[in-house]
Amino acid sequence: MLEAPEKVTVMRKRPETRSPANLFLGQLYIAQHQAAEALSYLRNAAKLHPDSIDAHGSLANAYWELGQEANARRELGVAESLRSRGGSRLGTPTGETDVATQR
User: Fold this and answer.
1) DSSP 77
2) Hey, which residues does 52 pair with through a beta bridge?
3) Structural domains counted in the chain
4) C-beta of residue 33 within 8 angstroms of C-beta of residue 65
């Protein structure tokens, strides 16, 4: 099982770094071919920053790895749409609460 570094765990508790920390952890799980584990982190990153190209692109990768082609195509479409509109790699905060930190 992947152990999150203490620094990233602390980052997930701070509103200004919550989304990047979730994105990082999700991408780390994907890199280790643990897409199912990545989903909750990536969903949180996309929820916190819905205009994040990286969050939606990473979600597409996780869904693709899980064989969920329709979901992968949807998220890829969102990422491409954001990119074509000049979107942000990390996005802008929405002020939403990260459900993963409430476990």
Assistant:
1) H
2) 88
3) 1
4) yes
pTM (2 d.p.): 0.75
Domain that holds residue 42: 17-89
CB 57 within 8 A of CB 18: no
- Maximum pairwise Cα distance, the chain: 38
* pLDDT tens-digit readout, 50-90: 989 999 999 999 999 999 999 999 999 999 999 898 877 76
pLDDT tens digits for 9-66? Answer: 655 665 555 778 889 889 999 999 999 999 999 999 999 889 899 999 999 999 999 9
For residue 50, the domain's CATH number is 1.25.40.10
103 falls within a domain: no
Tokens linked to 12 = 């997930």
Judged by DSSP in three states, 100 sits in: helix
**Helix, coil or strand: residue 32:** coil
Helix, strand or coil for residue 86? Answer: coil
